[in-house]
Amino acid sequence: MTLQTEKNLLRKLKTGVCALALAGVLLAPSAASFAADQKVTETVQAEVQQDTQTQTAEKRQKITAEALAALQETTNALKALDEGKTEDALASLEKATGKLEIVLAREPRLAFAPVAVTSNSQDIITSTDMAKRMVDQAEDLLEDGKVQDARALLSTLASETAITVTSLPMASYPAALKQAAAFIDDGKVEEAKTVLQVALNTLAVDVTIIPIPVANAEALLAQAKVLAETKDRTAEQNEQLTKLLDAAESEVKFAQTLGYGEKKDFEGFYEEIKTIREKTSEGKSGTGFFKKITGYMTSMTEDSQQDNSQ
Hints:
By secondary structure, the protein is mainly alpha-helical. It folds into 2 domains: 18-60 and 212-303, no CATH class; 65-209, no CATH class. It contains 12 helices and 3 strands; from the N terminus they run ααααβααβααβαααα. It has helices spanning 3-23, 38-60, 65-82, 86-106, 128-143, 147-154, 173-185, 189-201, 212-228, 235-258, 263-280, 291-303, and strands at residues 112-123, 159-169, 204-211. Helix 5 (128-143) packs parallel to helix 10. The longest helix is centred in the C-terminal third of the chain and has 24 residues, at 235-258.
């Protein structure tokens, strides 16, 4: 496949990914997941989607009505100033300040007051081998100085759900409102508008990345754990256990290709899954086989986080 052909394919994939994200679909099955049967794949997808929805809901519950109202009143104040209505602007700032005082009265040490939570998924549907070729091609493009071409190629190499929390920085936001009010009292409307605009432009943003192949592997291993602990497994159960372990390993290889985790995470994972295969071979069963491998999976997700607080 030529570079141009792959780039054309990526454009189509990117369009499809955007459509899925807008539709609220968490993920499409990666090529790796087909190592397990269709029923298992569907179950894993449902479990991963439910877990992500739960995490999003938990973050959304932290949104306070007062902080959200304070943000809206700030916008109202800025609009009023644009219209020359300084009294209305002061009234809005007074309301916003009062709302934030309520928030701080409840939690005096609160650093950030969440006002919005969104989730967005991007999942490239390709094989691990093709993803590796794309990475190699991006490296070649960078060596040739074709930075933008490499950027376009790399931008599609993602399989993740990003949960974004936008918050008011409580150390600076209330002070900005008071400063804006003081400027208005002094007749310095433009200065007040600048302060408010800066405050609105410097909200704190925190993004939690959930790597989809890692989440898929965790769900597959959870099912494998149940079978590994089952005594006197049938031949069918042994076959299913093998499929689950194979599928989990395929998902982790895909995650490694996309850079979700560190070298130590993957080395530990491969060593542990080899041990699990040995301990469960020929129908053997037991407990505690998955303790270490679960830790490596957690580490992959933790190592996939970026320093994205603003």
